[in-house]
Each structure stands twice: as structure tokens, then as C-alpha cells.
Amino acid sequence: MLEIIKWPDPILKKHSVVVPDINGEIDTLLTEMLEAMDRGKGVGLAGVQVGRLLRLFVAHVPNDMPRVFINPDILETSIEVEPFEEGCLSIPGIYTDVIRPSSVRVQAWNQKGRPFTLSAEGYLARVIQHEFDHLNGVVFLDRIDQKKKQRLLVEYEANVGA
Ligand code: ZN
After folding, report:
1. Residue 78 near residue 102, CB atoms below 8 Å
2. Average pLDDT per run of 10 along the chain, which is 162 residues long?
3. Residues facing 100 on adjacent strands
4. For the chain, what are the domain ranges?
5. Cα(13)–Cα(138) distance, rounded to whole angstroms?
6. Cα(19) to centroid(ligand 1), Å
7. Cross-strand bridge partners of residue 134
8. In CATH, what number does 10-161 get?
9. pTM score, whole prediction
10. How does DSSP classify residue 144?
């Protein structure tokens, strides 16, 4: 069973590398990541969060199917931005509004290695941007006011220390 890595593990700040090709190992990893995400009641999970520095993530938002993104590229983001409350399986118990583009167009491979392009808005657009950030060593708290980030991290440390 995959274990989800928690903040402040330094791996969360590392950049992930391109997946050269889809093999049985990657396929199994993605299936296990989908399970770990559901178990954690999360809506997204990136490879780095289970200790694999690979450019891939899974997402499953309400009223949508589970989705796999391998080697994703964000092709376009809307000019329009909006606040949306985010949390992270690697920083449990902390939730805060983050301002990001409302919609995105993303290109990636699916679990079979087939390329696709997807336009997403709302919850899914939000999860895609949050997970894509993980591939570049960025967490949602890096996207908010730094004073607020410090305050939330103090709260987090108090929670995990308890
Ligand atoms: Zn996250």
C-alpha cells in the first residue's frame, strides 16, 4: 500500500522528471495512486506525494470519472481567476483559499499512454493546477500570502505535533 508523504518532507520541493514510457510498473503505480487518493478522501494525488519523482498525477472530483495525467503540459489558462478553497493530502488539516485561473487546457497521456487534450473548469481545473504544481516542487501554500502561509504552517505543526 502506498504511503502518502507529509509536509515538511523535503521531497515535496523537488522537481519530477518526465515519464519516458508507460510500462507495467507505471500502470500499477497509477492504479495504486488512485486507490491511495480514494482512501485518503482526496481529489488529486501526484507521484511525488508517494515518493515517485515522476511527472504524473491522478484526479477524481465529484461527478466526474477518475482521471490520469502523465507528462502533463498546461497549454492555456484563463485570464479570469477565482479563489477556491484548497487542501492537500500531504498537508492534512489545512485548508485555505488560493487564487488561480478559473479554467485550463491541458495536454497529457492517459494510463494507456495515449495522448489527450482536455479543457477543464471549476473543481477539475483547480485540481489539475494544484497537482501540476506538485510536479515542480510547489505546494498550494506557496501560492498564498507568505504571512498567512507561516500562520497556517504553525497551525499545521501544532496539529501534527499533538
Ligand atoms: Zn497537494
Report:
1. yes
2. 95 98 96 97 98 98 97 98 98 97 98 96 98 98 98 93 61
3. 82
4. 10-161
5. 6
6. 20
7. none
8. 3.90.45.10
9. 0.97
10. S
**Rounded CA gap, 76 and 101, in Å?**
10
Ligand 1 mean position, distance from CA 157 (Å) = 17
- Cis peptide upstream of residue 8 (ω within 30 degrees of 0): yes
Name the residue with cell 489527450: 116
H helical segments located in the chain? 24-39, 122-135, 146-161
Q: How far is the CA of 24 from the centre of ligand 1 (A)?
A: 25
Q: Under 8 Å CB-to-CB from 117, ≥6 apart: which residues?
A: 75, 105, 106, 107
| Residues with catalytic roles | 131
Closest CA relative to residue 52, chosen from 113, 86, 4, 97: 4
CA 87 – ligand 1 centroid, Å = 7
